[in-house]
Specification:
heterodimer; A: 250 residues; 61% helix; 9% strand; B: 193 residues; alpha+beta; three-stranded antiparallel β-sheet; 7 helices
């Protein structure tokens, strides 16, 4: 073939080179991808083996469970997400997902049965104590476990939420917004020397409120919200008791 | 603060809510009051069962020294149940058939049904059977005041009559007319028709 001029031939050569380069780069990518696949496959086997071998420990030991969940989070795996039906993720991590779900059911159980006396707000420590008791006291349930489980309850739309009142974490199980003043009263009730019993005087002295404001806040908690009980035989003053700030021996 | 249960002198275990001072104040919030009433009702009936008390009168909380002091007063927290509150509790129990005004047409005294008539019927029939008194005629007095204490000792006649009505329905007891003080004859049977 007669050598063509620089234009077309050069163009042809370039096209060929480009094609060669393209082939080379896709083969690099292919091999990298294949390597990644095999790594993941190996990892998948390892994780599966790990979860199965350590299933009991994951279920029983909160520190271990915490580490396992951290590991999952680090590699971008959410033990609670993913398809529940079939798939190896649900099989491997269903272990943890189920456990979380079961705990969620127990939390609902306790919140519903104590709602009568505390109006739908239970202090975190008290909830953990009751959960441990409900589960037979064998395993440890931590606050972190509870917080995680409550996240799974969100889709229920029942208003389960962890809220901060004063310096304490509380679990709210009713879709009722605690107004700001009510929250202050609840916070005061939880102070150690207050022990759940609040009076108008105490609100005035400890929070600098006007008497009218104190009276209104307490009346609202009592009559509107059903979150406290009134004691009219109190020697000093009409007092208001907040069951959510108390612990009860059963 | 922690609320505790408390073992009374009679051996009865008082629930933690009994240590909560406002438990002795009639709550104005309707939902809270409903819960409170439920707790008081349960407490009254289980205490009555524990002590085998059948009668409850408003006076039982008005002055100290009644059979009910252990529950209507809490000296550890210096609280007591007020008569108006007890009247309202009694009304609630009557409306739920857990008590009956006795005598009728007044609202200050009741007989407590800490056992349903059906339960009393079974207990009665079982006792009659196990003491070999089936097919014999018995007076009401012999049932409520037997020489050897029985599960029916001290049972008020109105309660006994209700139990007998239940037994009558399944042919296990027939009240005999004309007997002074009341009489009945019991027959074998299981009560299942």
């Amino acid at each position: 073939m007669q050598r063509r001029g620089p234009g077309l031939a050069a163009f042809e050569r370039q096209t060929q080179s480009l094609a060669s380069y393209a082939q080379l780069s896709s083969s690099i990518t292919k091999s990298q991808v294949a390597h990644l696949h095999s790594q993941l496959s190996h990892f998948r086997t390892q994780l599966s083996h790990f979860a199965v071998t350590h299933r009991q420990q994951i279920l029983k030991d909160p520190a271990f469970r915490h580490q396992f969940q951290r590991m999952c989070a680090d590699i971008g795996v959410d033990p609670l997400a993913g398809p529940r039906r079939g798939g190896w993720w649900s099989e491997v991590l269903g272990v943890v997902g189920d456990w979380q779900y079961e705990l969620g059911v127990q939390i609902v159980d306790i919140c519903v049965s104590t709602r009568e006396r505390n109006g739908g707000m239970v202090e975190m420590g008290e909830l953990v104590r009751l959960l441990t008791k409900l589960r037979g006291g064998g395993e440890d349930v931590t606050e972190e476990d509870v917080v995680r489980s409550i996240k799974t309850l969100k889709p229920l739309g029942a208003g389960y939420e962890v809220v901060q009142v004063g310096g304490t974490k509380m679990v709210r199980s009713v879709v009722k917004e605690l107004d700001v003043d009510g929250a202050v009263v609840l916070g005061l009730a939880q102070e150690t020397d207050i022990g759940g019993r609040v009076t108008e005087d105490l609100l005035v002295k400890r929070r600098g409120w006007e008497y009218a404001r104190a009276r209104a806040a307490l009346e609202n908690l009592l009559l509107r919200d059903g979150l406290c009980w009134v004691d009219e035989q109190d020697e000093d003053d009409r007092s208001f008791w907040l069951p959510s700030a108390l612990t009860w021996e059963e | 603060m922690s609320l505790q249960t408390h073992r009374a002198a009679s051996g009865f275990l008082l629930p933690s809510i009994h240590s909560l001072p406002p438990f002795f104040t009639l709550q104005p919030n309707p939902s809270t009051q409903a819960i409170q009433t439920q707790h008081w009702t349960r407490l009254i009936l289980s205490y009555a069962r524990h002590r085998r008390l059948f009668f409850l009168r408003v006076e039982d909380c008005e002055v100290a020294g009644s059979e009910w002091d252990e529950i209507f007063r809490n000296d550890r927290i210096n609280r007591r149940l007020h008569p108006s509150h007890l009247l309202s509790l009694m009304e609630s129990m009557v409306s739920q058939n857990m008590a009956v005004y006795e005598p009728p047409k007044q609202a200050r005294a009741v007989i407590l049904h800490w056992r349903l008539p059906e339960e009393w019927a079974e207990v009665l029939h079982e006792w009659v059977t196990s003491t070999g008194q089936l097919n014999t005629i018995m007076t009401f007095f012999e049932i409520t005041s037997p020489p050897v204490e029985s599960p029916l000792s001290g049972v008020p006649i109105t309660v006994l009559r209700r139990a007998l009505t239940v037994l009558g329905k399944t042919g296990r007891g027939q009240v005999i007319d004309g007997m002074e003080g009341g009489g009945v004859r019991f027959f074998p049977g299981t009560g299942k028709s």
